[in-house]
Design a protein that fits this description.
single chain; 131 residues; 5 helices; mainly alpha
Length: 131
């Protein structure tokens, strides 16, 4: 009978230790999350800069040209497409689209995407000749 009492007492101690470990793990998680949020929001928050779109990498510029080409296919308005591409600076919209087309060809874009950009380049070249 004494043996059963010792086993029950050890089982109770084991449960208390197990629940206290879980308690400390939860406290550590809460403290870690709190310190991370405090550091990220108060001590060293992210600095945002007003960058212009012409600072984008070539792949992102090409993606933007592709999105403009997709919109052009739907709207068939070369003036609007030219205004969308004008955010990239002082180059002509057809030159910007041509750079995107060259990048797309060199980096294995899908043939359908290349065809869309080519259609946009052709339309912008014709449109700039009209103006």
């Amino acid at each position: 009978m004494i043996f059963c009492g010792v086993v029950e007492e050890q089982s109770t101690i084991h449960q208390i230790m197990k629940s206290s470990r879980i308690f400390f793990i939860i406290i550590a998680l809460i403290a870690g999350i709190s310190m991370g949020l405090a550091y990220g929001w108060l001590i060293d928050p992210v600095d945002f800069f007003d960058l212009t779109p012409d600072t984008l990498r070539a792949d992102y510029k090409t993606d933007y040209v592709l999105m403009t080409a997709e919109a052009y296919r739907t709207e068939q308005d070369p003036g609007l497409a030219a205004r969308r591409l004008a955010i990239f600076g002082s180059q002509s919209p057809s030159a910007i689209a041509s750079q995107g087309l060259n990048y797309a060809r060199a980096n294995g874009f899908a043939d359908s995407d290349i065809a869309l950009i080519q259609e946009l380049v052709t339309a912008l070249q014709a449109w700039s000749g009209i103006q």
